[in-house]
Amino acid sequence: MNTESKSENRPRWYSVQEAAAYLEIGEPTLYRWMREGKITYRKVGDSTRFWREDLDAVMEVFHSDKESDNVKKVCPLCHHDEMIEGAYRTTGLNYFQPKKTKFWTLTASNIDTQAYMCSRCGHVALFADVKKLAGLLEKKQEGEEEKE
Question: Same domain for 30 and 77?
Answer without folding.
Answer: no
